[in-house]
Design brief:
Blueprint: E1 10-13, E2 17-21, E3 27-32, E4 35-38, E5 43-46, H1 50-67, E6 74-79, E7 82-86, E8 89-90, E9 93-100, H2 104-109, E10 116-126, E11 135-136, H3 138-143, H4 149-172, E12 175-182, E13 184-187, E14 190-193, E15 202-206, H5 216-219, H6 225-235
Antiparallel strand pairs: 1-2, 2-3, 3-7, 4-5, 6-7, 8-13, 9-10, 9-12, 10-11, 12-15, 13-14
The chain binds adenosine-5'-diphosphate and uridine-5'-diphosphate (UDP).
Length: 242
């Protein structure tokens, strides 16, 4: 699964992944762990095989996005649970697009789950667990200097381009892309898609039954979490190594 690459120091350990420096100052190794968390880290559990599934799922999705012309940090898989990525200066916001209402938008706006959102909505959330990732807008991002106007515009443009590519990809596998979260960072002055795209950071429903095939299975204690992620991968023609 690619040439080996030396892991140097742990740069940071997040809730689900750990990030290591390498002998190349422009590259990092992301290690996908089995740790799973929800509700800003208040619910936690290790789910066997999840790290491997998410790493390989993300690799396949990033390859598709790159092929569609979306600039991504992903370089290559190093092992079942590790990937080599470009080191980004992360922009500390999450970009969320919703095609169908679910999750926090239902609680915030008092709307029912499952409404088609046309056009899809776009929201920014500040990455800050202590504050519970509060929603912010373009003005906050500019005034606090988290990103420039151009970077804000580029994040929106790329997040919607990802929607066009992935909505169709999942539909071809009999699934609805309900919503998803992306993170971006800057590399040599350019905004690149960073972090991951996996069933941990999006909502996917079976097209016909609307069965949940994503992290809501963990949030809602429905069981079969990793099995559902594997099923999503299988429907997209992916195979996983453990
Ligand atoms: P969290 O920080 O939400 O707990 P993770 O456990 O997924 O999330 O940790 C991964 C961390 O790595 C996140 O803080 C994310 O912003 C950061 N990250 C993702 N991609 C890159 C990259 N290419 N360069 C630098 N940092 C990255
Ligand atoms: N999301 C995420 N990380 C976060 C917050 C949200 O990956 O810190 C994803 C989540 O999985 C969903 C989408 O972003 O696919 C929208 O999440 P929402 O605002 O509905 O919050 P939730 O109710 O999922 O906490």
């Amino acid at each position: 699964m690619g040439l080996s690459m030396e892991k140097r120091d742990e740069l940071y350990a997040g809730k689900a992944k750990s990030v290591y420096t390498t002998d190349n100052a422009d590259q990092l190794i992301m290690v996908f762990r089995d740790d799973t968390s929800a509700f800003d880290g208040k619910k936690k559990e290790a789910l066997a095989r999840k790290g491997a599934v998410n790493n390989q799922f993300n690799a396949a999705i990033m390859d598709k996005l790159k092929a569609a012309g979306i600039p991504c940090h992903f370089e290559r898989l190093l092992s079942p649970t590790e990937a080599l990525v470009k080191k980004l200066d992360m922009i500390p916001v999450e970009c969320v697009v919703r095609n169908i209402s679910a999750g926090s938008i239902c609680r915030r706006l008092g709307v029912e789950e499952g409404l088609d959102l046309t056009p899809p909505t776009f929201e920014f959330f500040l990455k800050n667990d202590e504050l519970g990732d509060p929603m912010v807008n373009d003005y906050h991002i500019r005034s606090f200097g988290w990103a420039t106007d151009e970077q804000v515009a580029r994040m929106k443009e790329l997040t919607f381009q990802v929607n066009d590519v992935l909505k169709q990809l999942f539909l071809d596998g009999g699934m609805l892309l309900v919503d998803y979260k992306l993170e971006f960072g800057v590399f040599n002055g350019e905004v690149l898609l960073g972090d991951e795209f996996s069933p941990d950071g999006c909502r996917l429903w079976d097209k016909d039954t609307r069965e949940k095939l994503d992290k809501d299975r963990f949030r809602q204690g429905l069981g079969g979490v990793v099995e559902a992620y594997e099923e999503v991968g299988r429907r997209l023609g992916m195979t996983f190594e453990y």
